[in-house]
Specification:
Alpha-Beta Plaits, binds magnesium ion, single chain, globular, 149 residues, 8 helices, four-stranded antiparallel sheet, binds 2'-deoxyadenosine-5'-diphosphate
């Protein structure tokens, strides 16, 4: 089953939106596998956002993600990557679909509240960057058969 890394970024935490994000993912039927509330180190931020190194917004992005705690989570389910990206909305809040988290709560690309892996392959890579295997919980959810075909 696909896995995706979800972060409620510092602005989402400061604005009290951890529960809102979790609630939307739970309601969608996705299944939580791991979660931790943490202060992101510079090293982790630079590895996670390594692909953006050299871009104009890179320094600001590292500053933002390390400025205050984040809620890091692993969510799983069929097509979890696409489903979560859709629930979060496009990178720029003003281009995100109405009803998405970034649309409903955001205005600026540099304060877009959440992160979600953008491909199944990056989901695997990011989950192993942020979590140890022992932190991932494979559990039976009573409603699984009514959500997963
Ligand atoms: P996403 O977070 O939707 O996967 P991304 O991987 O392209 O988007 O970029 C990572 C983050 O960097 C994004 O959430 C916000 C910031 N960012 C991206 N493009 C930006 C830009 N043009 N100006 C400022 N910040 C930007
Ligand atoms: Mg990205």
């Amino acid at each position: 089953m696909e896995k995706t890394l979800v972060l409620v970024k510092p602005d989402g935490v400061q604005r009290g939106l951890i529960g809102e994000v979790i609630s939307r993912l739970e309601r969608r039927g996705l299944k939580l596998q791991a979660a931790k509330f943490m202060q992101v180190s510079n090293e982790l931020a630079e590895t996670h956002y390594g692909i953006h190194k050299g871009k104009t917004f890179y320094e600001g992005l590292i500053q933002y993600i390390t400025s205050s705690p984040v809620m890091a989570m692993v969510w799983t389910g069929p097509n979890a990557v696409a489903a979560v990206r859709q629930t979060m909305g496009a990178t720029r809040p003003t281009e995100s679909a109405p009803g998405s988290v970034r649309h409903d709560f955001g205005l600026e690309v540099g304060r877009n509240l959440t992160h979600a892996s953008d491909s199944p392959e990056n989901g695997e890579t990011e989950v192993s960057l942020w979590f140890n295997d022992s932190e991932l919980i494979d559990w039976d959810r009573a409603v699984d058969n009514w959500i997963f075909e």
